[in-house]
Amino acid sequence: MIPISTVSLSAQVQTEISVGADSLSIGLDNAVGPVENLEPDTLRNDTLRSDTAVFNPDPMKAVWLSALVPGLGQIYNRRYWKLPIVIGGFMGLTYAVSWNGRYYNDYSQAYRDVMDSDPSTESYINFLPYNRRNDKAWIEQNTEWLKSAMKRKKDFYRRNRDLCIISMVGVYVVAMIDAYVDAQLYHFDITPDVSMHLLPAVVEPTPFSKTSLGLQCAITF
């Protein structure tokens, strides 16, 4: 009786163990199967997502935006750090044009007043020192100097005003060129593996020079 029950018990244990192993194998197959089936789809979706996330600016669109509003092309190219440079340049030059233009108008009126013989037009007196504004004798003695001084000041501020206007046009054109070049080279690969080596070299003699020593420069990129 004892041997029979022992064999029966061991057979039952072996059956349970084999059934458990089969269940474990089936579970692993079911768990691995869907992952293997979905892996290509997942990779393909990630690739499509990365492709749609790449920004490719249009150079012509960047130029037209910069021509419409200076600095807008830099915003389109996502070069936001250049925007304060463009806007600051235009604001500074606009103030310079206004400041020089105001003085140019004042000195132009003063020059016209000192050139005519009308005693009621004396705007040039405002540019004289306080101790000379009421000195009629001094003014009459230095009329020619006043004419020359008013003309020099008028020409000086007119020249500065014109230079500021030309500079504004230059900043406008440079902003357009920068927007185009930046969009064109947006994906240009600037590798960090750039090195320069200086090596001694012997310069071969020529009919006009002797053998000499020098340095050879090699740039690797």
- Unreliable residue runs: 1-38
How large is the share of residues in beta strands? 5-15%
The dominant shape is elongated
- C-alpha-based Rg, rounded: 43 Å
Count of DSSP-assigned helices: 6
Helical content (DSSP H or I, runs of 4+): 55-70%
Can you offer a commentary on this structure?
The chain is mainly α. The protein has 2 domains: 1-54; 59-184, no CATH class. 67% of the residues lie in helices and 8% in strands. It has 6 helices and 2 strands, in the order ααααααββ. The protein has helices spanning 2-53, 59-68, 72-76, 83-115, 136-141, 143-184; strands at residues 195-203, 212-220. A two-stranded antiparallel sheet has the order 1-2. Helix 4 (83-115) packs antiparallel against helix 6 (143-184). The model is unreliable at 1-38 (pLDDT under 50).
Key terms for this structure?
6 helices; elongated; 2 domains; disordered N terminus; 221 residues; 67% helix; mainly alpha; two-stranded antiparallel sheet; single chain
Structure summary:
The chain has helices at 2-53, 59-68, 72-76, 83-115, 136-141, 143-184, and strands at 195-203, 212-220.
SSE map:
Layout: H1 2-53, H2 59-68, H3 72-76, H4 83-115, H5 136-141, H6 143-184, E1 195-203, E2 212-220
Antiparallel strand pairs: 1-2
